Amino acid sequence: MLVFPQILLSVILVSCPTPSPAQQGGAPAGRPVTCTFSNPSYSGYCKASASAAKEQSAADACQEILDCLNNVQCSKTYCNATQIRGGWNLVSAEEGPGN
């Protein structure tokens, strides 16, 4: 009997994640936004990419990154993996792909 291999295959197929529309080549989840930040302790400007949901402004989309940059407990990396946490300001938030 081949019951066990069929059950095993069913379990594997059910547990595999389904690709998101963005992974399938469909429309991205949001509009691309380029965020520019400054900090007196950082040389130059920091640019990071974000994604704005339909109802969000570009500045709202950058807020999550700004909150992380100003939070010593945030472990995400931005700005060439800077360890500077605090004193960051949003300089600009522009819709469109990053440079």
Main attributes?
99 residues; alpha+beta; 2 helices; 3-stranded antiparallel sheet
Structure description:
This protein is of the alpha+beta class. It has a domain at 28-95. It contains two helices and three strands, in the order αββαβ. The chain has helices at residues 3-15, 58-69; strands at 31-38, 46-52, 89-95. Strands 2-1-3 form a three-stranded antiparallel beta sheet, covered by helices on one side. Strand 1 (31-38) and strand 2 (46-52) form a beta hairpin. The longest helix is centred in the first third of the chain and has 13 residues, at 3-15. The protein is globular and about 35 Å long. The relative contact order is 0.22. The model is unreliable at 18-27 (pLDDT under 50).
What's a quick, concise take on this entry?
This protein is an alpha+beta fold. The protein is 25% helix and 22% strand.
